[in-house]
Write a structure and sequence with these properties.
- 27% of the residues lie in helices and 35% in strands.
- The chain has a 4-stranded antiparallel β-sheet, covered by helices on one side.
- Helix 2 runs antiparallel to helix 3.
């Protein structure tokens, strides 16, 4: 299956369980692989037959910046649901990371993999 990749989408939002995390936005790094069939889009060369990564990125960013979730697990699952709103997406691998959240680690996060219909 073909893949549409959104790599290192950096957004700022409220996420975390600690009091200080609930008071100010922090960096959230999002990576998404959308599995789809690009053959029709290649034949027509039309955006209407594509998974529009620009629109998808904007929707993901808007949600991540406004959701104010406590856990990266919850946010990641929210974002996967948004990905599946595009009928062309058959499978999603999505990673949400909090850079600098743990001392001596570049980032920590969660990666989930879902198929349409799960």
């Amino acid at each position: 299956m073909d893949r549409v990749i959104i790599k290192d989408l950096l957004v700022r939002g409220i996420i975390g369980v600690n009091d200080w995390e609930r008071k100010r936005a922090q960096d959230i790094l999002i990576n998404i692989t959308l599995f789809t069939d690009t053959r029709r889009a290649a034949e027509t060369d039309s955006i209407v037959d594509c998974v529009d990564y620009s629109k998808m990125s904007k929707r993901i960013q808007a949600h991540a910046e406004s959701a104010e979730r406590l856990t990266v697990e919850a946010l990641a699952n929210d974002l996967v649901k948004i990905c599946f709103e595009d009928k062309g997406v058959q499978k999603v691998v999505l990673r949400v990371e909090k850079p600098g959240a743990v001392r001596f680690a570049k980032s920590v996060g969660v990666e989930i993999e879902r198929n349409r219909g799960e």
